[in-house]
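JOB MANIFEST
job_type = single_chain_structure
chain_count = 1
residues = 357
[input]
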Amino acid sequence: MFSHPRHYAASRLFFKCRRLNARPKSATVHVMTDLSTRYMGLSLANPIIAGSSGLTGTAKGVKEVEAGGAAAVVLKSIFEEEIASEYAEVLAEAKEKGMSLESYDYYDYEIRGDRVAAYTDLVREAKKSVSIPVIASVNCTYSREWTSFAKELERAGADGLELNMFFLPSDLRRSSEEREREYVAVVERVRKEVRIPVALKISPYFSTLAQMIQKLSKTGVSALVLFNRFYSIDFDVEKLAVTAANALSTPAEIAAPLRWIALMANRVGCDLAASTGIHDGAAVIKQLLAGARAVQIVSTLYKNGAGAVRAMIAELEAWMDRHGFKAIADFRGKMSQAASEDPAVYERVQFMKQYGR
C-alpha cells in the first residue's frame, strides 16, 4: 500500500500518535475544581478572607496575606472608641491648662481628622499593593458622627465596608429593644452615605438572635458576618488584677457560628460569612456546607503564617475532588437546616445520650 519508505514511516507515526492519544473508557479524568465565589457582590478566587487584625494593618501585611492565597482582605479596623479615648485624654490635659472651649472643639476636629486621614492612606496603599478586594472596617459605637468616616473610605477606594458592631448588653439604662433598633439605624445611616457594599459583623448576644439576623439581612446590607470575637477578661489571682484572656481563637469555637450559619442559610436576604474558630481546611468545608459564602480567618494566620491559606485551599480542593464536586455552588448549603431531612437536630441544645445516665 505504501510504495515509498517515507510514506510507510509517516503511517507508523500516525497510528502511534493515535494509540498515545487514545483514552480507555474506564479512565478517570481529573477536572480542575472551581473555588470561586461571590461575596458582597465582589468576585473572589476562593472563599477565604483574611479578617481584620494587626496583620492587615499595613500595606505590607496585606501583600503578605494576598501572597499566601487569601482572596480578599478586611483591613484592621478604625476604632471610634480609640478616637474618643484620645480626645478625652487631650481634653483632660487642656482643662488642666485652662484652655477655652473653642480649643476643645479644635482638638476634637484634629484628632478625628488625623485618624481618618491615616486610615484612608492605608486604604489607598493597600489598593495599590494588591489585586484582591480590599474591605475597610469600622468598629462602631452608638455615636452618629463616625458615619461620615464611611464616605471617606469609599473615596479612598475601598471595595467594601465592614461595620464591626457590638454593644455590650451590660448597660442597665438601655433595653434590648433599644440596642437592637440602634443596629438597624446604624446600617441605614451608613447606606445613605456610601454606594459600596456594606457588611455587618455582629455578635450572638441578642434576645431573639434568629429574628435579629433576619431583620438585619433585610436592611440592605450585602452580608452578615457571624460572629464577632471579643476582648475577654481574666483574673490574676495573685496580683488581684484584671488581665486579658487569650486573644486567639481555638478550633472548638467554630461551634456557635457553624450552628447559626446552618440555621440561617437560605432564610436571609443577604450573604453570610463565617468567622471565629476556622483553623484548617475542614473548618472551611464545614462552613460552606452550612451555607456560608465566605469565611474569615485571623488566629490561624497568627499561629501558622500566611501559608495557612494555601494549606486550607489544598484541603478544600482534595475534598471536592474526592466527592466529585466541580464548584463550591455544587455543595454550598448542602448541610444547612433548610436542606436537612432532620431539621430538629440543628436546634437541639441539651446533652442527652452523650452525657446522660
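[summary]
The chain is about 40% helix and 15% strand.
Residues 101-129 form the longest helix (29 residues).
exit_status = 0
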